[in-house]
Amino acid sequence: MDVVAADGQAYPFLLDTAASRTVVYRTFVSLLDLEASRGQSRRVITATGPREMQVYRVGKIHALGTAFDLKETVAFPDPRGRGVYGILGIDIMHGRRLALGGDGARFLLEDDEDWLDDPSWLVAEGRPVGYGSLAVTVTIAGVEIPAIVDTGAGATVLNRMAGAELKGKAGVEVGAGAASVSATAGSVAAEVLVVEHLTIGDWRKENQRLVVADLPVFSAFGAKHAPAMILGADVLLSAANMVIDFKEWRLCVQVP
To answer: Per residue in 75-98, pLDDT tens?
Structure first.
């Protein structure tokens, strides 16, 4: 996802619907020679733990067909191998409908209001959680699990309580080999479950690989002591088209 900065150049950013705020990476700070807010830092909860980050003045950016005044935000260490300069968070998505598909990503405008009249759309009703992220209910082997819709997560992750609830159920197998989940603060050991199918509202997915790990982000969303999951890009981007609706709080997909 390209973001046009104050210098008129386009920089690739990661689109993350579970990130509470839009942030930049340190290379972006260097390239634009951004000014640090003196004596200011913020504690940021990443998927794998908390980090203290320096605050910088950014100013106006243009993304998803819309101009935003980012004013100040934190700078993360550069991620390894991603080739992106920052993260677009839900602070710029409040009250909007985010469309993702073959034409890229954009916000739906008021004159797009009839988009859901097409009967090929499958709908999952949801609710707001955290700082304005969308949560939907995912059903696996008869177990209903609250799931945060997270376009920034490469994998779909269950917390340990959800993993324990599913083990031994028909249609759920423990995967072979070790796994881990990586983010800014480091890596967390994980295990793998393979499920025969899962359903999200009207949408059914077959033979899905899931990761089980107790990430600190579950605590940040108040989901430490109950089954919960992060619905990642491995599931979400398998749809041909998708609308994450932060106005009516629902997830809508068209499948191939």
So the answer is: 988 887 678 999 999 999 999 999
Architecture of the domain whose range is 112-254: Beta Barrel (2.40)
| Among the listed residues 148, 104, 99, 68, the one whose alpha carbon sits nearest the alpha carbon of residue 247 | 99
d(CA 196, CA 182): 26
CATH architecture of the domain covering 2-92:
Beta Barrel (2.40)
Which of 226, 224, 203 has its CA nearest to residue 215? Answer: 224
Q: Compute, in degrees rounded to 10, the torsion defined by CA atoms 20, 26, 27, 29.
A: 90
Task: Using DSSP bridges, classify how beta strands 229-231 and 157-158 pair: parallel, antiparallel or unpaired.
Answer: antiparallel
Sheet holding 2-4, edge to edge: 10-12, 2-4, 60-63, 66-69
Q: pLDDT tens across 118-170, in order? A: 889 999 999 999 889 999 999 999 999 999 999 999 899 999 999 999 999 99
In the chain, % helix, strand, coil (3-state, to 5) comes to 15, 50, 35
Domain boundaries, the chain: 2-92, 112-254
CA separation for the pair 251, 121 (Å, rounded): 10
DSSP-assigned beta bridge partners for residue 203: 200
What is the Cα–Cα distance from 208 to 147, expressed in whole angstroms?
A: 15
* Whole-model pTM over 0.85: yes
Q: What is the dihedral of CA 51, 53, 58, 63, to 10 degrees?
A: -10
What pLDDT shows up at residue 178? 63
The tokens describing 252, both together, are 């809508």
CA 14 to mean position of chain CA atoms: 9
